[in-house]
Amino acid sequence: MKKSERLNQELIFIHRKKQFNLRDLMTEFRISKRTALRDTIELEELGAPLYAESGKNGGYHVLPHQLRIPIYFKETELLSIFFALQLLKNPTPFPHSYQQIKEKLAEKFSVTSLEELETVLSYEGVRMPIAVPQLEILYQAILAQHQLRLDYQKAQRENKIIQPVRLNYRHGFWYCFALDVQKQQWRTYRCDKMSNIHFFSEGQKYTTQEIQQQLVQQQRPYCFEIQLTVKGCEMAQQQLFPNMTIVDSQLKGTYHEKELDFLVNYLLMFGTEALILKPRKLKQAYLQKLQDIQARY
């Protein structure tokens, strides 16, 4: 490992460990005591906030302040970052545009190099059909564990109080997984359907385990099974929801009665690549939807 790369890895190592001694560096990076001592001096010169403690249990401590340790990247790593950042061409929860970050990366490369790279290597995802200015406030509320009051547009406009915990980008739309505070149920909302978002109150922290336990209590009592063709399996893999699995070319899952219409619309996209095996109620709802579509023509 080159010295510059080793120092970079050591910066990350001590930032995570908070307290270490020379033996830790020697063991982790397979270096001699003399090299470990030289590296520690260079880490301080690079901005690592260290102080030493003598004695039997002494060593080095990383000062607990907000100084951000500089991280150094190889050119290939920067190119990987540039490729990943092309996702920012779509709206994101962050207030910085793809163009702004591209200009900063251009300081490390020639502009021609980045422009040439864009012509031979690019990410083409599903484009957002509309702007989503709500993302930043939702993202900040997730970090601060705040509850929000907002209007949500479905068939009718509804006023809701939610505590958002996760944002998810899927097939051209941003979704927010949040607790409906009034109903005390977890729901997924489309972000572009939200408006008039305001701070409501302090929320509480929910661990992944707590959320999963509460979701189990929100039982989806109905089960469904769908036979899929090979193409149908590929389509399902591209848009598989948490309550669904694919087993032996069958799409299986559970749903709540209120989700029946959503499930029918979801299955319509498969066309002849899917066959509903059960339950009967889902079959009937699916056939009724087809009749309603046919009646329009």
TrEMBL record:
<dbReference type="Pfam" id="PF08279">
    <property type="entry name" value="HTH_11"/>
</dbReference>
<dbReference type="InterPro" id="IPR051534">
    <property type="entry name" value="CBASS_pafABC_assoc_protein"/>
</dbReference>
<dbReference type="InterPro" id="IPR013196">
    <property type="entry name" value="HTH_11"/>
</dbReference>
<protein>
    <recommendedName>
        <fullName>HTH deoR-type domain-containing protein</fullName>
    </recommendedName>
</protein>
<dbReference type="InterPro" id="IPR026881">
    <property type="entry name" value="WYL_dom"/>
</dbReference>
<dbReference type="Pfam" id="PF13280">
    <property type="entry name" value="WYL"/>
</dbReference>
<feature type="domain" description="Helix-turn-helix type 11">
    <location>
        <begin position="6"/>
        <end position="60"/>
    </location>
</feature>
<feature type="domain" description="WYL">
    <location>
        <begin position="135"/>
        <end position="197"/>
    </location>
</feature>
